[in-house]
UniProtKB/TrEMBL annotation:
Disordered: annotated segments: 127-153, 269-299
Keyword Transmembrane helix appears in the UniProt entry: no
The keyword Transferase is annotated on this UniProt entry: yes
Entries under SUPFAM superfamilies matching the protein: Nucleotide-diphospho-sugar transferases
Top-level lineage group: Bacteria
Family: Belongs to the glycosyltransferase 2 family.
Pathway(s): Cell wall biogenesis; cell wall polysaccharide biosynthesis
Biased composition (Basic and acidic residues): 269-286
Source organism per UniProt: Nocardioides pinisoli
Residue intervals passing through the bilayer: none
Alphabetical keyword list: Glycosyltransferase, Transferase
Name of the molecule in the record: Glycosyltransferase family 2 protein
Length: 299
């Protein structure tokens, strides 16, 4: 019998986490393990909802106080595999699970284990006064997957080795493929870059990517800034790391918008802060220049 674990990482977002818990407990197939990785958040504790227990593992902040998103996901997957999981689903804390999400991921990872599988994600409008549907089946009436990613219909599979389309909002993987992948690069700390890096790493190591239409998730609304100015330093640091590993900068749309706002400038093929030359990552003594990781292809 296939054992399925669902892993989420969280810092704050307690109401969204509780709503995700309910959606998993009431879905078509309940996961055998539900695990939250609490990033510097002691208020996230073990709980049970409708018979589904949410276990918790904790991790502290990363270097310079950033949230260790990549390391937290790795910890969550390894902890889930330690429970004997055959399929691990990673679901962003803001995402509600559609009624068929767990079952669809379980089926595709079991039958086609040599790929990393993602599912379509709908961004929900602001929560209505009566709340989002309590029954995951009711979420289908809101279904409108994000247009920037593939949108296979329920029942459809799409094998598409496009690493720059990978995102960590919702995906699933089996143990052997995860170990071959090696997980997320933990040099990424804070916001941005680690998703695309993982997609590139997968392709470099001969691991395919795919999209499964039945694994639909629904992203709960919350205020956002566009571009995400509050994450500017993370984006610059992680973008430079990505460049070191892959020879190009990610997140160029945001960086160009930061440039239009006078927050960053291009210098010698890189992006640096406009207003703080002491934090220029070109400077060799700056801690942002200490990241030096490489990805090698494996047979």
């Amino acid at each position: 019998m296939t054992r399925v674990a669902v892993v989420t990482i969280a810092h704050g977002r307690h109401e969204h986490l509780a709503a995700q818990h309910r959606s998993l407990a009431r879905g078509g197939l309940r996961p055998d393990t539900y695990l939250a990785v609490a990033m510097d958040d002691p208020d996230i504790v073990k709980e049970q909802v409708d018979g589904l227990v949410r276990d918790v593992v904790a991790i502290g902040r990363g270097p310079r106080g950033g949230l260790p998103l990549a390391a937290a996901r790795n910890l969550g997957v390894e902890s889930a595999l330690d429970t004997g999981a055959d399929v691990v689903v990673l679901l962003d804390v803001d995402c509600l699970a559609g009624a068929g999400l767990v079952a669809s991921y379980a089926n595709v990872v079991t039958s086609r284990p040599h790929r990393i599988w993602s599912g379509p994600v709908t961004y929900l409008p602001p929560r209505p006064s009566e709340g989002y549907p309590a029954d995951p089946a009711g979420l289908a009436e809101w279904d409108d997957p994000h247009p920037a990613r593939p949108r296979p219909a329920p029942g459809e599979l799409l094998e598409l080795d496009e690493p720059d389309l990978f995102w960590s909002l919702s995906f699933a993987v089996g143990p052997r493929t995860w170990h071959r992948l090696g997980g997320f690069c933990e040099d990424y700390v804070g916001y941005g870059g680690e998703d695309t890096d993982l997609g590139r790493t997968a392709i470099a190591r001969g691991i395919g990517l795919g999209w499964v239409g039945g694994a639909r998730a629904y992203h709960q609304h919350h205020p956002v800034s566009s571009p995400p100015v509050e994450h500017l330093d993370d984006i610059l640091r992680n973008g430079r790391l990505f460049h070191q590993r892959w020879g190009e900068w990610p997140m160029t749309g945001w960086l160009e918008e930061f440039e239009r706002r006078g927050l960053v400038r291009r210098e010698d093929g890189h992006w640096v802060r406009e207003d703080d030359p002491e934090n220029d990552p070109e400077r060799p003594e700056n801690p942002r220049a200490t990241f030096a990781s490489t990805v090698k292809e494996t047979p």
